[in-house]
Request: fold
Amino acid sequence: MTGGADGHAEDQGRVYQSRGDQHIHEHHHYGGDEPGGGGPDSVRRPAVGRPPVVLRDRDEVMERLRASVEAGRGGQVYVLYGMGGSGKTAVACALFQEVIGERGRAGLWVNASDRASLRAGMLAVAADRGAGDGELLAARNGLRPAADLVWTYLDRSAEPWLLVLDNADEPEILRDGSWLRTSPRGVVLVTTRRAAARWWPGAELQHIGVLPREDAALVLCDLAPDTGTPEQAAQIADRLGRLPLALTLAGGFLSHQVLDPWTMDAYGQHLEGDERVQLIDRGADALSGPDPRHLVGLTWQLTLDIFEARGLPEAAMLLRLLARFPAEPLPLSLLNHADIGDVLPRARTETALRALLDQSLSELVDIVGARCVQSHGVLLDSVSAATPADLLPALDTTAVRLLDAAVPRAPDAGPHDPQLRLLVPHALTLVRRIGEPSAAADALAVATRLSVALHRTGDYLSAWETSRAAADLAQRLLGQDNRLVLAARSRSGRALFRLGRYAEAESVLRGARAAQERLFGADDPDTLDTSYGLQLVLANLGRREESIALLRATVAGRHSELGPAHPLTLRARASLLEMLPSAELAVEEGGALLSLPAQCDRLLGSDHTVTLGARHNHAWALYLLGRFAAADREIRLVTDRYVRRFGPEYPIVLAARQLLSRTRAALGHVDEAIELMADVVARRERGLGHEHPFTVAGRQLLDEYRSGRWRPPQPCGA
Reply:
């Protein structure tokens, strides 16, 4: 390149011009010990614990659905709707099992209950259908449209498929991301409580209601044979409104009483007149006819009464604790922590959990390699509504502490960790549900730290959604000027920057910084963190002088408040290595800036994230100064370590390899530079597409190598 200011930003990095040359540097400071991006969600089996023993009274709908998946059929969306607990997922699961066992279709199952789960599951579908690591990484990082990638591979699928979108109770999530589409290669089946036709244009809707009396009685007899007659089962079914979930809970209770077995007759007598628990099925559209949802509470309350009578009150308390979380898979590791002792003895947690599993109040599921416990949302709503008010503070505090222990204490950069995403709905639910300010503030702090962890593993969309939603929810209780609310806002701005939404990021970060500076001072650590994020945005918006001035102020503030050896101080100083022009690099800090990598190595260790970032930036500074051999040695070392930690597709690896191509070319090895850049461009084309600005910029550099037009930078005074 020769002169001009038409540099291209790529890899969500900055562009710096030096006599026409451009430096494109990636700010992903990844860490971690394992290469690769983490395994995707398993989509080849339903994310349910135990399907029903026998599917009762669903013959008509099953025949209709079977016809939809006959050979040669595709391009249709079917929606199963009904109240919570009516058995929609059971129907979908039955069809799913038939499809993969008898009809030669691939079965793909995705939890569509929240944005993060839906996106992760759909990207796993793309991986299952053949998407490459680079494409998936780009979609996860927000560098290419995720839904487009998924449906491209569904359309290309070599085998027909059935895609189940389970628990789509917020259909606006599907609409906002354009996730729900059709393809001639497959059939989509949605389960939801939202019946309004406006959500499902072009789809065929099927209501899943309560069971007829005879079939409802058979469900009880299937689950608890020899405990009563069909007529007694029918009477209990009537009392429970013939709702499949209530019948399942009742059958689980009857089938697991060993010391003092119950008969159906005795169970029915305990139901009479017992209206202690009322249930509101939150989120469901209004349904005509009788509404039996309030009766679910009667079934589990009888079970908890038995737990109390038999000296196992811990099971009741564990269920109440689980009800503070949403009806999403909760990693079992959260429950295996000392902090659970505030509400039940840790030594009794295993016994309590087994009791819930035995009584069908909860089930075990495996999600992204994590063993989780899950309970039905209607059940948890019922339990939550019936929990005594005096127990709520201890339950909420314990729930927050358990989640706090599951989130990395000091999140480091590293490969994508799909298990972090499992924690998102739980963190947001706690922030929304807790009404006591101190506990709500603790929940917000955990949610913000989870956002940081997601951000540093490259899941920028989830990071943004988590911090933004947490701030919005907590602001209603804590106020917009609360320190933790402002910190969450700042994190959402940092994620917007990574998503390339620079104007929005600047607005969010400027607003947060102004409030932090007014309330806490310019050199407060939170203010300085926001300042550091803002200068990244300003650099990408081309406002270099403003960016450098803010970065210098951040360096000075961190040096004063945190000390010269703090990792955040060192990281800010390392940013000067890539920001400053060659004329200033050698004299900055009296020449000490160029020795920063050695200082980081001594203070933090050679493999520390900040040390590697400093070496990467140092290599660029050496390159600008014309010290090509030293720059080549430095960036080669950095590239090798990046590849070992993140694999060959990560953006920071490609950025490092691009700088390596520059140093090789500057040393006269143009053929090697061409080979390096050809590989970088090919990987970006696969991951981002041919027309993405990052790909275009890399291709331009490659063309300059091949045409002989490329020239190395000329340092000042040369």
Observations:
- The mean pLDDT is 85.
- The beta strands are 14-18, 21-25, 76-81, 106-111, 161-166, 186-192, 204-207, 330-331, 363-367, 370-374.
- The two ends are 18 Å apart (CA to CA).
